Every structure is written in C-alpha cells, then in structure tokens.
C-alpha cells in the first residue's frame, strides 16, 4: 500500500465528515443523555470515538484479510476490486453532493445482515457509567450501516493484507474525528459548514475526479 492510499483514506474521512455527522451525529449527541455522570461526558466522548475507531480497524482487517485470500488466487478478482474502488469513489462523491442515493442499498444490506443483530447489545451498555461501557458503546455504534464507511472498506479490501486494511481504516477514522469530537464539544457551527451546499459540491467533485482517476488506472 502506497502513501497515496493512506493520504486518500485520511482525506476521505475529512471530506466525508459532513455525512458522518448526519449519520452518527445524533448518536454522538445522545451520548450526553446516556451518560449517568455528566461530569464525565468529555472523557466518555473520547472513549466512544476511540471505540468507533477500533471497530473500523477491525472491519478493515477482516475485509482485507479475507479478500486477499481470494485475490492471491485470482488476478481477475484483484483487478475487479480496483475497478469497484473507482466506481464506489464516484458514487461517494455523488452521494455527498446529494445528487443520488446510490449508496442507500448497501446501507440497507448492512442493516439486515449485521446491524439488526448488534443493536440488541445496546440496552446492555446503558446507562453509560463506566469507561469500559463508553468504549464498548463506541465499538458497537462503529458498525452502524453507513455507505461512506462501506465504501472506505471497499478500498481497504483492495490493500495487500489485514494489517494494511486496518491501517487504511485507521486513517479514515482519524479523518472523521475532528467533526465527531467537535460535535460533542458543541461545535455545531462546524457541522453547518460541512453540510453547506457549496462545501458538499466541492467535496463531492473531489471524490468523483479521484474515482475517475482510479478507474482510468485500473482499466489501462
């Protein structure tokens, strides 16, 4: 995995922060209601986000590790992953620009296949009155069906190993932290900026052009 891949993961997280706020912002905000000791809100918020980062890393390691078992047996499979990465990057751009809801279907699949089973664990973590519960709460909600995260996972799948897949998702998660942690610390203005129409159009076009670039490289 090249440095450009790691940079793209970080940028993808940063530019997709507006979508993260829309998807997970409500969950992060509800953390203040779930925390029993209000004096611990900031500390628990950091632990919640650490848990979310860990979930992304685990998902990246699993996805990349399993896919590479197939890719090592077939160059066609590896080539197909590269093409899919470019296609999904374009779809992410259109999704962020709100010109299409083309990623909704993958969120629906994730909801049925994974989330409806994991969400049952939520009641066991409330109220959040310990550090371990705050961390576990973040790890649980890190599996919330999200088209942007799934698209990042597709990129992680195209890396060379489970370690690289985890590293890719780590950089992606770090990119989302300023918005997610900032929201918890009352940075509502930051949310408004990221969701501004002009910002969404700029970020969306960056994703689209990068996706087209990846497609050209894969098809040459």
From TrEMBL:
InterPro entries: UreH-like_TM_dom. The chain crosses the membrane at residues 6-33, 53-71, 77-97, 134-157, 163-186, 198-219. Keywords: Membrane, Transmembrane, Transmembrane helix. It comes from the Bacteria. Pfam families: DsbD_2. Residues 9-213 form the Urease accessory protein UreH-like transmembrane domain. The keyword Transmembrane applies. This is Sulfite exporter TauE/SafE family protein. It comes from Pseudoalteromonas spongiae.
